[in-house]
Design goal:
Elements lengths: L4 H17 L8 E2 L2 H15 L4 H17 L1 H12 L4 H14 L9 E5 L2 E9 L2 E6 L4 H14 L3 E6 L4 H17 L7 E4 L4 H9 L3 E7 L2 H8 L4 E5 L5 E4 L5 H13 L11 E5 H12 L3 E3 L2 H11 E4 L9 E4 L8 H6 L11 E5 L5 H4 L6 E7 L2 H11 L6 E5 L3 H11 L3 E4 L19 E2 L5 E2 L6 E9 L6
Parallel strand pairs: 1-6, 4-5, 4-7, 5-6, 7-8, 9-10, 9-16, 10-15, 11-14, 14-15, 16-17
Antiparallel strand pairs: 2-3, 3-20, 12-13, 18-19
């Protein structure tokens, strides 16, 4: 794109300013109540269920086109709505979703032919899917899910995070505009203007909703898994990165900072803590500082803890208070966070790094901020062991910088994550600058992994005995 950030900022400001002056427009698929949303999708699905693959693919092509066309607007609105992230990086994420989310080509039919006839195994829709989406990647998740779910022949009702309701409604409207432009039914994708726990519960328990998909924290995933319905859960992570003494340290330093700071560390796959062998630790830290990292002193680490972590009330009498993230600083710029401890820096600083012990809270907590704790380790085995423990068994994502294939194998087996990235920034794990499709619903807890259209279907077997086997 031949446009700099200042020009982009002005374009988006002008567009949004014009929108504010106009009368509020009706948004397609956005309803006052969950009952209305569910009723609308059910009516649309009665028509959509007869659409063939070609018709569904035409709809998806139009969703991709509009996503590219309006990526800048959605990126700006997402930051304004959630107060999190980086506009330029969100633009890149929308283009990624448009380009690399699989469509109907992901649906494969299997044919089994033999002496006793022919059996077809086809991929059929579930029907109406209820989806809960996060504030971290709101419109990207809505669009990514919509492409995959519509490709599978489903309708979908979204209950987005309340802190991202404006941008989520915009994304639902965009999808519906694309559907109508391609000749599809109105309101095959829907949401509510003001999502709440009540609207979420109604969606989860409604008899017309046959499948549930949650992209968020452990609480929402647990709720869906206890619903009694088929559910896909994309939970939290705390991805560790290990750097050994065979790595290209200069490249590792840049890759780690690039990954850790992408959209201000909001992606659940981003590097959250670093374990590095002592023999290359100084070189790695120096390389990080040359790539926009600010190194904290031990005293500054203590001061920052008080800013970005807060005590949560004990759940039971006698329990110790637990430190949790201060949501006011999730996805904020490094310079904004540093200012809270009296450190004033420019835009060139994009990451905060610090040396800590393994037990330190920054290591053990998924911060979702451009803060990277670094732990020195005597051996690769020690680094690997710490990384596995810090990942907390989420089985989400892990990273390694090494040229030793045996170490790659040992770490991959030990950490057992859905995504394992080697010698690249974390975002390579979702197809950004790498091979493979993308998704913003990474289902570790329920095992679907990097979800796509085939994740949102059910298999149906059609059997014909003693016929149509012509061998």
């Amino acid at each position: 794109m031949n446009i700099d950030e200042k020009q982009l900022e002005q374009i988006v400001r002008n567009v949004l300013s014009g929108m504010e002056k106009e009368e509020p427009k009706h948004q397609l698929g956005v309803f006052d109540t969950m009952e209305e949303a569910l009723d609308a999708v059910n009516k649309a699905y009665a028509l959509f269920r007869s659409y063939n693959r070609e018709q569904r693919e035409n709809i998806i092509k139009e969703i991709r086109r509009l996503t590219h066309e309006e990526a800048e607007i959605m990126a700006k609105l997402a930051v304004e709505d959630t107060k999190m992230g980086n506009v330029y990086h969100k633009i890149l994420k929308h283009h990624l979703v448009a380009d690399k989310t699989p469509g109907t080509e992901d649906l494969e039919v299997k044919a089994l032919s033999g002496d006793r006839g022919l059996t077809l195994v086809e991929m059929a829709p579930y029907g109406i899917i209820g989806a809960i989406t996060p504030s971290t990647n709101p419109s990207c998740t809505v669009i990514c899910n919509s492409i995959g779910m519509l490709a599978g022949g489903n309708g979908v009702v979204f209950n987005p995070h309340p802190h991202a309701k404006r941008i989520s409604a915009y994304a639902v409207d965009l999808v519906n505009r694309a559907v109508l432009a391609a000749g599809g039914p109105e309101n095959i994708v829907a949401t509510v203007k003001n999502p709440t726990m009540d609207t979420s519960n109604m969606m989860v328990n409604h008899p017309s909703v046959k499948m549930l998909v949650a992209t968020g924290g452990p609480g929402v995933v647990k709720m869906l898994l206890s619903s009694g319905k088929k559910a896909i859960g994309a939970g939290a992570g705390n991805p560790p990165v290990v750097v050994d003494d065979t790595a290209d340290i200069k490249k590792a330093a840049k890759d780690i900072i690039d990954g850790c700071t992408f959209d201000n560390n909001l992606p659940c796959i981003a590097e959250k803590e670093c374990f590095v062998m002592e023999s290359v630790a100084d070189e790695l830290i120096d390389g990080m500082q040359k790539n926009g990292a600010y190194l904290l002193s031990a005293q500054q680490v203590k001061e920052l803890e008080k800013v970005v972590l807060v005590e949560a009330p004990a759940k039971k009498p006698g329990d110790k208070p637990k430190l949790v993230i201060n949501k006011d600083y999730v996805g904020r710029d490094a310079k904004v966070i540093l200012a809270q401890i009296g450190v004033n820096v420019g835009d060139e600083v994009r990451c905060i790094i610090c040396e800590t012990e393994f037990s330190q809270a920054f290591v053990q907590t998924e911060l979702m901020m451009p803060i990277l704790p670094i732990v020195r380790c005597r051996t690769f085995e020690e680094a690997m062991e710490m990384a596995v423990k810090a990942e907390h068994g989420n089985r989400h994502t892990a990273h390694l910088h090494s040229k030793n294939v045996d170490r790659m194998t040992a770490y991959a087996r030990a950490v057992c994550t859905t995504i394992f990235v080697k010698n690249a920034p974390s975002y390579a794990g979702i197809g950004f600058g790498s091979e493979g499709h993308t998704t913003f619903t990474i289902a570790g807890p329920t095992g679907e992994g990097i979800t796509s259209a085939r994740s949102f279907i059910r298999q149906r077997r059609c059997v014909l005995v003693d016929s149509l086997s012509i061998v």
